[in-house]
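#data-curation
PF: Archiving a pair of folding outputs for the training set. Convention for this channel: one message per protein, sequence first, structure tokens after, nothing in between. First:
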Amino acid sequence: MENIAGKVVVITGASSGLGEAAARQLVQQGARVALGARRLDRLQALVKELGEANASAFRVDVTEQAQVSAFVGHALERFGHIDVMLNNAGIMPLSPLEMLRCEEWSRCIDVNIKGVLWGIAAALPHFKRQKSGQFINVSSVAGHKILEGGAIYSATKYAVRVISETLRQEVKPYNIRTTVISPGAIATELPASVTVPGVRKAVAELYQSTAIPADSFGRCVLFAISQPAEVDVNEILYRPTRQAL
């Protein structure tokens, strides 16, 4: 795990699941983390565990551009610089299109697409000035494979991949790296964002039988960050060994 110690990583969706697991493993390897999410109490508990010298908490709703910008500003003020922007916050409100759950569609787009864009907008000017930095954007297996009931969720996760690849091409003059991580069924709170009863039950059963721990995601984050500056790991797609979809 070279090239991690001393780096500052900004993480959205850090109050549980993938973000929380990544934060723990990053601090273990000598990084410092700025933790953002809506549940400030959860973030503060994590900061207490990791140590105030290593972590800082900031309440942020990633659907609000001004809040994401303020979050990155807080990280800069607290740690002096940032090295990695981990755009992790996401929701998965699966449902058939014919149910017309338009409010859920809008929320999914706001969190999963706009949340990533606002993270890029907040961190990119700083990365350009320092001529270094790394974006890690979280997609999903659903960003590679479309399933019934997953039209909007899959569309948002495909969008993350498209945005990330375009960003990769555009930021080459600034030495900025861009990584997309696409996890399969991971044991997190994500299935709880499915509200349709029948779909929720099916997803819960899939995760109960298949899901692997969130530290698997943390190891992917460590791998991507730890590479030498001239190595840009652009995409990691992984699943539980037993996951067929």
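PF: Second:
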Amino acid sequence: MSDSQPQAPAGPPARKRTPRHATVTAVRRVTPHLVRVTIAGPELAALEPTGHTDTYVKLVLGELADGRPLLRAYTVRSRRDADVAASGEAEWDLDLVVHGDEGVGGPWATGVQPGEPVTFLGPGAGYAPDPEAPWHLLVGDDAALPAIAAALEALPAGAVAHAVVEVPGPEDEQELVSAADLTLTWVHRGAGDLAGTVRAAHAAGELPTGAPHVFLHGEAGMVRDLRRWVRTELDVPRELLSASGYWRRGSDDEDWRARKGEWKAAVDQDDAALVG
């Protein structure tokens, strides 16, 4: 580079992420398309709870061609720390969606065995249901189901929650436990429309009045579409909205990871149009 060429300003140093380690202690198929992998170890016991129901880790499932780790993010469905004092270890459950040989995480979950080591980054977190909210709307597909289930379990008695969840078929439905006044609607992929089901419930007067605290995660196109709707039709402010595209129809995992920044920019434009 010659002296006459402008140099880009130095940005902040890259945040160092410390790999953590655990051991797989159990693997079981919860439904035909969901496998629960339990991991345990002293490093888990050393990590304080985040205080969020949507706590996630990034599993290291290989290496990319350029040497970077191949990462996939999964919600910590539940954690058991009760015996830490005695054993020095904690146990976490991770629920992974499986669709045959598709993707990376699903095949790993179906092949991993108890006793195998696992490396991960995190945990990170970004959402917990506000117990003071007038009501809660939780919408997502099977990729978001672990986080939705964890949120419902955390809601106190007296809270009002409406959850709409898309799964491949009736055999993929789960019993979701909540002390809240819960209305749960299952949508079967190909036989119904997730966003349309939410809109129809609102049009029929089946949803409470007032702005809910919203958790909206899953397929990126659906999330952006329904995100616009809850902002305009339900008057949900940004601070009461957790919305994220986990995957995008027509894109593989790496393509979506590379393009997610464009999606986030489009979402910001949606919000700017509301203000304008």
